[in-house]
Design a protein that fits this description.
By secondary structure, the chain is α/β, with parallel strands linked by helices. The chain is 24% helix and 23% strand. One of its GO terms (biological process) is lipid metabolic process.
């Protein structure tokens, strides 16, 4: 289940917007800029994926990511990728995009260490092309989401949040210093012993205005 955590006084939206810590200025190689032109969606699903995961994308399209499942609620599903070093994979992805029109690619190398760039590109896409979306779900292609439960929770939230809303499984932890670990964090990149509280990347939901 999701947990909600209020922002501290030192981490308000206005403070965060005061300056850009990490400018994200990669160009789009594949885009779906007109996805929200007709009607702002209730929910945008942003899914991090890789070029070789076609089967996973197709499974999502046919199950929980199907945009037509909820006729009374508009849902938009998008897969987020960077650029592959394999030209054949890039070409195959372009063909897939022409069929399904649910893929966004930016001009950075698609790699595990660039996963944060996919999150930023997703937020930038929402802020640029779909700013009136009510909610955004960010997750990965190896996750199954109970959409019935999620839509119900968002339509009938206890506190009726609409703006500056961010919810997920809150983690309190610190950087891993073991160089053998997949999640190794060098001290020169992040010197502190603790991270601020953060939501698990498995899946989290935020209101559309947070993407700004």
């Amino acid at each position: 289940s999701f947990q909600v955590r209020k922002a501290t006084k030192n981490s308000t939206i206005s403070n965060i917007r005061a300056r850009s810590l990490n400018p994200h200025d990669f160009g789009y190689l594949i885009n779906e800029a007109k996805k929200c032109e007709t009607e702002p969606p209730f929910l945008i699903i942003l899914i991090s994926t890789t070029h070789k995961e076609f089967d996973a994308r197709q499974a999502i399209r046919e199950t929980w990511g199907d945009e037509t499942t909820f006729p009374d609620v508009r849902v938009v599903t998008l897969f987020l990728l960077g650029r592959s070093t394999d030209a054949v994979l890039n070409q195959m992805l372009e063909q897939e995009s022409q069929i399904f029109h649910d893929i966004v690619v930016e001009d950075f190398i698609d790699s595990y260490h660039n996963l944060t760039l996919k999150t930023l590109m997703g937020m930038r896409w929402v802020a640029t092309f779909c700013a009136k979306a009510q909610y955004v779900l960010k997750t990965d292609s190896d996750i199954f989401v109970n959409m019935d439960n999620l839509i119900y929770k968002l339509l009938k939230p206890v506190t009726k949040p609409r703006r500056r809303y961010f919810t997920g499984y809150v983690i309190n932890g610190g950087p891993i210093r073991d160089m053998r670990s997949k999640w190794y964090m060098p001290r020169d990149v992040y010197p502190d012993s603790k991270y601020p509280p953060f939501c698990s990347g498995t899946g989290y939901v935020f209101s559309g205005d947070v993407a700004e």
